[in-house]
Hints:
Helix content of chain A is about 55%, strand content about 10%. In chain A, helix 2 crosses helix 3 (about 45-50), helix 3 (about 45-50) crosses helix 4 and helix 5 (about 90-105) packs across helix 6.
Amino acid sequence: MVQELAMSTSYKAALLAEYALVAQVFSAPGRLMILEQLAQGERGVDTLAEKTSLSVANCSQHLQQLRRAGLVTSRRDGKAVIYRLTDAKTLDLMDLIRIVAERNRAQVAQILRGLSDGMDAPEPVSRADLAARLADGTVTLIDVRPADEFAAGHIPGALNVPLSELECLLPDLPPDAQVVAYCRGPYCVYAHQAVTALRKLGIDARRLEGGFPEWREDAVKCLRDGRLLNPDAAQHAV
Amino acid sequence: MVQELAMSTSYKAALLAEYALVAQVFSAPGRLMILEQLAQGERGVDTLAEKTSLSVANCSQHLQQLRRAGLVTSRRDGKAVIYRLTDAKTLDLMDLIRIVAERNRAQVAQILRGLSDGMDAPEPVSRADLAARLADGTVTLIDVRPADEFAAGHIPGALNVPLSELECLLPDLPPDAQVVAYCRGPYCVYAHQAVTALRKLGIDARRLEGGFPEWREDAVKCLRDGRLLNPDAAQHAV
DNA sequence: ATGTTAATCAAGTGATTGATTGAATCAATA
DNA sequence: TATTGATTCAATCAATCACTTGATTAACAT
């Protein structure tokens, strides 16, 4: 039994080391950026390096740490090596890290307040609400990501309006329009900023809860359940 | 607008640094052990040092990292400084780290198989199942933690049987008894080992999903909802 | 073959981390 | 007030990490 106790501590130490290793993977801002990009879809190394403004070599090294931890897998496509997330749960973990940070670290709340620039940010719109509103046609949905990411996939019915072109949207907008903005996900600040900018102009703008990856997860789930969340289809259904 | 984009990246960098910092706190086995202990209830520094077999100074330093990250708070009780978790969500985060590790790292699955020592471990018992079974009286619930932790709080109806005293349980056990074992929580291996040992002796033993902290969380929730999960009370209700 | 592009590897640097030791601080009590 | 015991701070060391640079491998095109 003494032997078993000793075994116990060694097993425990090994497990704790494994858990710590997984946590460590999320403890570098660069890797969080990479994971955020991979959440949008599979990407090559140079694309990731460009989007995260890391050097290619550095990005590659981060990717291999992620692979060693089992969080990403790669395949070859010609000269390119394409990486993708192995498990959607990874995104849940990232989101929970964010939630714990927001709840327990005053600094985070302060930064988020800074993003709304003095205005009180309205509650985000839930994905279910968005689907209903899109079906009604009572809302304008804008995708605030760069054009290439929009092209690689977006919520049906969304307009691609990168932050720098926000003003171009205004002329086509009725004054009482309700705008919902989304971007890469919970880590991305584009939608925050778009909402703040639009509200400064007196427009009723709100943020979508989560971003494109979260919406897609929901959509996949709903399709699996035989229901429809796809707003284009929903319009016909309603 | 260019200025806003620059702002965007600086805000984003600040947020990512915050998230990375929270993740980093979970990236040391020693801190995970401390958090597991604090999940059971508030503890003083020397108790934590003893339970985790860390030096007092080292433990204190870890605790201050945890405090800097906002995950624990402290109060003074006489000469002692008592630490406690500020947020129950922290436990959810630890559990999700464990789940991601189990799903994506083969090594973890291998270690867990090693814990069952060749036998195929049965599915854990859910907490709802346990409540029902306890009410029926068709199950023997054992708490495999050290006596002092049992004394500081345990599931009503549980017998305290530390691993080293597992054999003492046998004489009082009918041969067809169903045993459910629990310990500190998902990070703890005591219950795994108790189940393996008992099953080797031909006893129908299973592990409770989670551990004492998770059960308590559930119990608190149920009390808040006006329902009753407390098995002692449930026995009267049924 | 040769060159090109994409990704990885290898080595080195500066900064950070976890742990140890011993001294300093603090609150309660004699 | 002085003492005691519990905790924290400070200095240190070895190990690790993120990142850079330059060389190397791999797939494809000419």
